[in-house]
Amino acid sequence: MTAETTATTxxxxxxxxxxLFVCVHNAGRSQMAAAYxxxxxxxxxxxxxxxxAPADSVNPAAVEAMAEEGIDMSAEIPKVLTDAAVQDSDVxxxxxxxxxxxxxxxxxxxxxxxxxxxxxxVASVRPIRDEIRARVQQLVAELLPAGTTAT
Length: 151
Known about the structure:
This protein is α/β, with parallel strands linked by helices. The protein has helices spanning 29-41, 60-67, 83-87, 122-143; strands at 18-23, 46-51, 91-95, 108-111. Helices cover 32% and strands 14% of the residues. It has a 4-stranded parallel sheet, with helices on one face. The protein is globular, with a radius of gyration of 14 Å.
């Protein structure tokens, strides 16, 4: 397991905000969002992703679409959603997982309605990737006010 999936510091006890992206299979949308947030925040945001019913592997079209952006997701592995991951996150962003994500008071929740890239080729995944990038850029602007610097 990686540091992104096994954070043990409760939300609010670090100076870095933490974000969890959740979709059903943790193979496309949530993986792309996590990869963008990791890249764009330059380590200033703790990033996790998980799925309510994780797939066996990350969607190859999503990996290819992100590689076009210079972001390598080829080593990522879908992870199962846990209560601890939700509790340890300041922001939980769901992407089509419905009621599978537990709710905890004090955590910010958003639901991003995005097309599911499952079974689609890279040409169909690019618009989804681009929408995710725009939303992640907005999230970075909200979580890291102007003037904050990388640590």
